[in-house]
Write a structure and sequence with these properties.
The chain is an alpha/beta fold. The chain has a single domain, classed as TIM Barrel. The strands form 2 sheets. An 8-stranded parallel β-sheet has the order 1-8-7-6-5-4-3-2. Helix 7 links the parallel strand 7 and strand 8. The longest helix is centred in the middle third of the chain and has 16 residues. The relative contact order is 0.16.
Length: 291
């Protein structure tokens, strides 16, 4: 029997406008036309867009970001949904309209790979929350939605069946342990597979070891085997640790010609010893997985 072919793999950090990356990932000396996102898109074929979580995007800003990644044809954004839609009991039609209008330029540019709905840790699988979830899904129809749940009640069969029925992806998350925390999983409930590594300490500052990343590669390969598109997001702080782990993850997943900025390799020589320095990845090589 022929197995389904693996779709594109998108691996990258969460966000890009982090002050701690200056002089470590971003060069100290920059040209006048330097753009952080454009520079990031030379090395990664995806970035999780974080500012959309705090407020709807301005459409003109979304257009600018699409222009900044145009030299990487494989680049796809994953967008975090506005927290008003996921963290508050009610939302209005104008809230949905504002969120959708902000990401519309990304949709039109065919750069919208996933919309991540992050629900709070206390959001349990109950009849009330099921109704709320379905209502939100209907308002965000036609979007490639993925749901991040931090409460293990969403592993119940009825919850997973609901995700499949409504074509919402399941975010496989690595997070700090807490009561009824979502354990490590390798689940796929829609054509979009999603893995998010957030670190294992409450402080948010955590660097994964190669053994820990290797453990996750097995789960990533399992879900990516059947997915039309797979996202792997490193969200384990903004002090360059997420970047280091993102480069390591690319290497472990068999992406070809992985390279990192020379300053980053110098800062983390042991962790990035097998990564070639200085030159960015070439377009067209991002979605290659080792057999």
């Amino acid at each position: 029997m022929n197995l389904p072919s693996t779709g594109p793999l998108h691996c990258g950090p969460s966000g890009w406008a982090h002050a701690q990356w200056q002089g470590v990932f971003y060069p100290t000396t920059k040209s006048k036309d330097f753009h952080q996102l454009e520079y990031t898109s030379r090395y990664f074929n995806s970035v999780e867009l974080t500012s959309s979580f705090f407020a709807p995007l301005r459409p003109e800003l979304s257009k600018l970001w699409c222009r900044q990644v145009r030299n990487n044809p494989e680049f796809q954004f994953s967008v975090r949904a506005w927290k008003k839609l996921t963290h508050e009991a009610q939302f209005e039609a104008k809230d949905i309209a504002a969120f959708r209008e902000g990401i519309r330029p990304i949709e039109e540019a065919k750069k919208l790979g996933a919309v991540l709905m992050q629900f709070p840790s206390g959001f349990r699988f109950t009849p009330e929350n099921r109704t709320r979830f379905v209502a939100l899904r209907r308002e965000l129809k036609n979007l490639p939605l993925v749901a991040e749940f931090r409460h293990s009640s969403w592993l119940e069969e009825d919850a997973l069946s609901m995700l499949i029925d409504y074509h919402v992806g399941f975010c496989n998350i690595d997070q700090p342990d807490h009561s009824r925390a979502m354990p490590p999983t390798a689940l796929m409930t829609s054509p979009v597979a999603y893995v998010r590594l957030c670190g294992r300490t409450q402080s948010g500052s955590y660097q994964y070891s190669m053994d820990e990343l290797t453990e996750w590669t097995h789960r990533i390969r399992k879900v990516s085997r059947y997915a039309k598109r797979t996202f792997v997001v490193l969200s384990n702080d903004h002090g360059a640790r997420s970047l280091v782990n993102a480069f390591q993850m690319q290497q472990l997943l068999g992406i070809e010609n992985v390279r990192a900025p020379r300053d980053l390799v110098r800062r983390f020589p042991q962790e990035l010893q097998i990564i070639r320095p200085d030159q960015p990845l070439q377009a067209g090589l991002f979605d290659t997985l080792a057999a």
